[in-house]
User: Fold these one by one.
Assistant:
Number 1:
Amino acid sequence: MMKLAVCNDIAEFGGNRLADKRWAARFPGAGWVSALCDLAAKRGWEVASGDVALSHVQCGYWRADDVMVIQELDSAWGTRLRAAGARPLLLTCMESPLYASLFFDHWRTLAAPFPHHMVPDPEARGSHSAGSSTGWPLRFPCYWQHQRIHADDWQARKDEVILVAANKYWSHEDKAVIPPWTRPRSFLQWYRQTRAIKRSPSREYALRQQLHDIRLEAIVALTRADRLALYGSGWDRLSVLPQQWQTRLAGLKLPYWGKIDDKLGAQSAYRFALCFENIASPGYVTEKIIEAMVARTIPIYLGAPDISHVIPSAAFIDARKLQSMAQLPDMLKSLSSKDAQPMIEAGQRFLDSEEGRLHSYEGFAQWVEGLAVEHAHGI
């Protein structure tokens, strides 16, 4: 009988917790594992997190060659399962080089044993990009089909631009604090990894392409025009930002409304959503623009330079067309309801398409299920 091991080293994903939809809802992008568990149950398959799957193999409850590994990044659980005889199926990466630089430095080596990989790198697409492994463009799953907003009056919505994002800045990782470890081996491992990250070619590239500063420019421009509604954690603690941004933002009264649990519900009350990725990297398109379309809110997008190869250009406002973020408020004033409706409809057509459906938890899980069926011979 088929066994699927979903391997991620995030502690909160262990112990088969993502089989619980309510638990998975706490983590953006995690719901597809819950959907996969439902699909697997209908086929008589079993799904487990990597830690549980390895335990089953080690105690003899599962045969290793019955297990197919779905591995996120360089998960130790996936590596150990494959070393025990489990069969690789899919390597995924939902992060950018800004936060997973060591993975991007050697993703081809990691992907080579897998029949399929999904890595946000234009060189990762198609056949033979990593040995005989087939590469797929990133499709970030981020919503349940029942969450889509199907009818609304766009004109009646709030005219501000909503931004739902934590207050993060790329230099956080550079402000390393020596952890309070007493074991020399643990400290040495931390020290080596920190040095490796700072020397990473992928990180050097990512820092040149980071968009955190431009997002802050947009926050300043929209706040001054009284057109911003800011949600998310950390915006009441500007001390996490570089000094120049602390100074610039200190003179503004940020329209900060705190954290929210229902991001899609909040977005559906506004006409526009600011959807800036953390990096301008080809192929790296995350949940931000997708969730805006699900909420029938017009996305203002900045990120992947090849975004029009993923999302129809008629479905969003391309912030690259602005000479500076100071022009953004005036550009939004010129957009009428007559202009907005075709954009919203273009977004809905994309979500209805085969490629668009892959961004839903159900669609992504069905795609993974299809890969497993394709490679299930001999189990």
Number 2:
Amino acid sequence: MSETRFRSIAILGSGSFGTGIAKLLSPKVESIVLIGRDAGAAETINREHRNPHYLPDIVLPENVTASSDPADALAHPLLIFVVPTSATRATALNLSELGLPQDRVLLSCAKGIEKQTGDRMSEVLREVFPSNPVAALSGPNHAEEIAAGMATCAVIGSEDPQLALSLQDLFTLPHFRSYTSDDLPGIEIGGAVKNIYAIAAGMAHGLGLGDNAVAALVTRALAEMTRLGTALGGRTETFSGLSGVGDLIVTCFSSHSRNHRVGLALGSGKTLDEAVKSLGMVAEGVPNTLSIHEAARRANVRTPIIDAVYAILYEGKPAPLAMKELLSRDPRPECG
């Protein structure tokens, strides 16, 4: 174990990413507790050192345990939130009611914005815990590869440079390299919006539109992401980094991408319910499409790709028609 500010960690959410992060950070700390809702799964993790539902082939070290009691998070100096974005506020409110101390560091790894409020996850945490240090981690970070010890990079966003450096130290391992940034809005928006574009890329693949079309779609998605992200408070250069183009690339093309797989199913003719059911896990891009479409309309930003995915998911527009309309829009300058 190396020296770090954080001697123990609580991870809120025992899905794939929580499991992967637990495996990643286990050499750096004395103990890690994975906290989920399934008491039976927690018992299995404690007994067999494997998560029975997520990444079941990954053996977790002895210093990783599991619990279904949120109160078990209170004693740890660092709490990592990997619950779905729709559950972040409820999880935070529960911890607040349990009396979470003000010195506990809160790190958000959830990628999305809250429906109706349009709040980023760090803003949700800040609202519930106005005195606690808050940061966010994002980037091209598939849990399967992190857990397997494959080379990965991430960016850690925080308005507190010392906190960012402390978290960077924690998330620096031979196979995991982290960077820091003070552009918390840009990092979180990039990580959220790319989920929608992954659905669009999956649909394009499912429709058999070809590599040229998918490459063009992803390139225009980056332009759209930057346009929306800067309107919502991010900096332009952030979207050329790990939480922007980096996360966009991996999510739009990787076989690990849940959102791409949902889009692929839709492009192949399945309904949204069928696509989500066949996945068997949360694809954040589906609820993100609703919340981010709302945010784009409030900001009055032109987002044709997001609009097309929204029309497919929530207005019943056929995927082939939506993609055709994207290609047949009025010509315009590339950088306009």
